[in-house]
Design brief:
It holds the Pfam family HTH_17. This is Helix-turn-helix domain-containing protein. With about 60 residues, this protein is an alpha+beta fold. The protein contains three helices and three strands. Strands 1-3-2 form a three-stranded antiparallel β-sheet. β2 and β3 form a beta hairpin. α1 crosses α2. It is globular. It starts with 13 loop residues before the first strand and ends with a helix.
Length: about 60
């Protein structure tokens, strides 16, 4: 994610919990335990948890503006 230039609002690309954790500099377990409290909406792909890139960007905008 470092060095990626995003269009306004981000994309619909799906990120794994590990990718989100790396981006936010927290552990993958923190993402799995806190995403509901943080208001991140997950996308289920079968049994797998994924997050839309634009939802993560929206969360960061809301939280840290």
């Amino acid at each position: 994610m470092v060095g990626v230039i995003l269009a306004q609002g981000g994309s619909y690309r799906l990120l794994t919990p590990a990718e989100v954790a790396d981006w936010l500099k927290v552990s993958e377990l923190t993402i799995k335990n806190k995403y509901r409290a943080w208001g991140l909406r997950p996308q289920k792909v079968g049994r797998l948890l994924r997050f839309r890139e634009r939802d993560v960007i929206a969360y960061l905008e809301r939280k840290y503006g």
